[in-house]
Specification:
0% strand; mainly alpha
């Protein structure tokens, strides 16, 4: 331990506050180990809060967006219940739980995964830079919120 700090004392004070996991940076072996740790935590979370499969389906580990959201929530809980946390941190964690549940529900609704069946995430395609309009105007077929193509307007709306 640097600076002669007692390792046990340091671990008790800060050990539970390791930084968040950046999943894209992990090796395959690191990802497997972290996934196992996260799976145990998610299983306990689902049981503690009676989370429905339409929010966290059984196949959540096969959806990167869910893995990262659940990992962030676990990190938030860990910080919220650390010995050094504020007395109001538990309420902050419950707010985070609510927000992440909404995000997870949104992600699950895209795939329509159920308690019995997994469905792969539909890959999104982005327009290639060669298709983008040079002046920043929208591509052909773009419709504004009012349903008209902005390039077709010959006058300003009043």
């Amino acid at each position: 331990m640097p600076l002669g700090i007692d390792a046990e004392l340091y671990g008790r004070a800060f050990g539970q506050l390791d930084g968040p996991v950046h999943w894209p940076s992990l090796t395959a072996d690191e990802r497997a180990a972290r996934s196992a740790e996260l799976a145990d935590w998610v299983t306990a979370l689902v049981a503690r809060f009676d989370v429905e499969p339409r929010v966290i389906p059984a196949c959540w580990q096969r959806h990167n967006g869910m893995v990262e959201a659940l990992s962030a929530l676990r990190d938030h809980e860990r910080a919220s219940y650390a010995d050094t946390a504020s007395p109001t941190a538990a309420v902050d964690w419950l707010r985070a739980l609510r927000e992440v549940e909404l995000r997870l529900h949104e992600l699950a609704s895209r795939t329509q995964c159920t308690a019995q069946a997994h469905r792969d995430t539909i890959p999104r395609s982005w327009p290639s830079p060669s298709r983008a309009m040079p002046d920043g105007a929208p591509e052909e077929g773009f419709r504004s919120e009012r349903g008209t193509d902005p390039r077709e307007r010959g006058h300003r709306e009043r």
